[in-house]
Amino acid sequence: MLGAGSWGTTFAKVLADAGNDVVLWARRAEVAAEINKTRCNSGYLPGVVLPEGLRATGDAVEAMHGASAVVLAVPSQTLRENLAGWQPLLPPDATLVSLAKGVELSTLKRMSEVISEVADVPLEQVAVVSGPNLAKEIAAEQPTATVVACLDHDRAVTLQHACSTPYFRPYTNTDLVGIELAGACKNVIALACGMAVGLGFGHNTMSSLITRGLAETTRLGVALGADPMTFAGLAGLGDLVATCMSPLSRNRTFGERLGRGETLAQAQEAAHGQVSEGVKSCSSIRQLAARHGVEMPITDVVHRVCHEELAPIPAAAELLGRERKPE
Ligand SMILES: NC(=O)C1=CN([C@@H]2O[C@H](COP(=O)(O)OP(=O)(O)OC[C@H]3O[C@@H](n4cnc5c(N)ncnc54)[C@H](O)[C@@H]3O)[C@@H](O)[C@H]2O)C=CC1
Ligand SMILES: O=C(CO)COP(=O)(O)O
Fold first, then answer.
1. pLDDT band at 167 (very low <50, low <70, confident <90, very high)
2. What is the C-alpha to C-alpha distance for residues 315 and 305, in angstroms, rounded to an integer?
3. How confident is the model at residue 275 (pLDDT cuts 50, 70, 90)?
4. Which residue numbers are catalytic?
5. Residue range 144-167: average pLDDT?
6. What secondary structure, in 3-state letters, does 18-59 show?
7. 88 CA distance to ligand 2 middle (Å)
8. Per-residue pLDDT reduced to its tens digit, 55-64
9. With 0-12 CB in 10 A as exposed, 13-18 as middle and 19+ as buried, what is 165?
């Protein structure tokens, strides 16, 4: 496991609980030392006791030595740079697993595309784990389902078995495009829902944003060759509902702060270095949509609130004032 933030540490626990021998690489040596000494990653998962089958290290060589799967748990926008450094260390046939939910700003590529390109492996060797997976709830072993997506179904099944525990139930899927776009887009819709909460709006507003957010995400997915049914599944509607409704979501919390009138810088400072992927992905997804002639009005206003000083109240008015049309 490369990355010892909230989700990397939690998914490492899932893999260890499923019976695997897991080595977790942390960027900061003191985080690795704390995990090995106290079985705790207090900065990201206070109070969670990590299992014995999990060992941490600050040495990427040690982390990847002999691995049958290498799981990438760093933010989307740094993944290319991180992986370029790790590329010479990757075991040749290891499944490369992406946990990140974003679209790269400079290239508009999905994470599996970045991984395949930088690691120089076929896309069939890359898998994605995505679903309604708020790290803190899974770390507390609350029942959760997810999706393991890979173009190579057999590889997906192997990974599915490797991460099945009594509290974590993975399904397989081969629609990599749909699963990844769903995961990236829901962060942007969660920012919009957070803004709605910050403005004092209730569940009708949230529900309207979730449903129309799903509609625009599905439109983009279909334009890029995804199966529309994917968006009704765990990584689509499932993750969208979890992220938009939960105060645990960093994206929703970030949006809530913007809705209350904080600036982007203030919201960023309050996040204490934890990543809210939607803040950057709103721009890359908006560009991807424009490239394919797809309308994504919610994503468009989220981008303008985050990066072009559109205020949340006129943003809401703009969405409501759009041309009337059939559903
Ligand atoms: N936290 C959650 O509940 C879930 C998060 N995800 C996704 O997983 C990915 C990782 O998220 P988290 O672990 O939650 O984020 P986080 O912000 O908690 O941790 C990110 C990790 O990456 C490291 N990192 C940050 N910048 C780096 C850089 N330049 N080079 C190397 N390492 C760097 C940090 O030290 C930290 O270990 C994101 O794409 C997120 O959307 C997916 C499902 C659930
Ligand atoms: O992806 C997630 C839940 O599935 C986590 O969402 P946040 O990054 O908004 O916390």
1. very high
2. 7
3. confident
4. 186
5. 98
6. CCCCEEEECCCHHHHHHHHHHCCCCCCCCCCCCCCCEEEECC
7. 30
8. 999 999 999 9
9. middle
pLDDT at 8 over 90: yes
286 is in an annotated binding site: no
> Are the beta carbons of 296 and 220 closer than 8 angstroms?
yes
State whether the beta carbon of 244 lies less than 6 angstroms from ligand 2: no
Top-confidence residue, 273 or 215:
215
User: From the alpha carbon of 131, which atom of ligand 1 is closest?
Assistant: 43
Is 250's C-beta closer than 6 angstroms to any atom of ligand 2?
yes
Q: Return the CATH fold of 6-175.
A: Rossmann fold (3.40.50)
- pLDDT for 270 equals 94
Distance from residue 248's CA to the centre of ligand 1 (Å): 15
Tokens standing for 244?
A: 């938009």
**27 belongs to an annotated ligand binding site:** yes
Q: In the chain, which residues fall in CATH 1.10.1040.10?
A: 177-320
Say which residues have a Cβ less than 8 Å from residue 177's Cβ, sequence separation at least 6: 110, 221, 224, 225, 226
- Does the annotation flag 131 for ligand binding? yes
Mutation pick for ligand 1 pocket among 2, 6, 180, 243 (CB with most ligand atoms within 8 Å): 6
CB distance 3 to ligand 1 below 6 Å: yes
Reported as a single tens digit per residue, the pLDDT across 194-231 is 999 999 999 999 999 999 999 999 999 999 999 999 99
CB within 8 A of 136, min separation 6: which ones?
A: 6, 10, 45, 248
Any atom of ligand 2 within 6 Å of the Cβ of 249: yes
Q: For position 274, what pLDDT does the model report?
A: 87
Residue 186 assigned as binding residue: yes
Q: What architecture is domain 177-320?
A: Orthogonal Bundle (1.10)
Pick the atom of ligand 1 nearest to 76's CA.
39
Tokens, residue 203? 């569940």
Establish whether residue 277 lines the binding site of ligand 1, counting it when its CB lies within 6 angstroms of any ligand atom: yes
Residues of the chain with CATH 3.40.50.720: 6-175
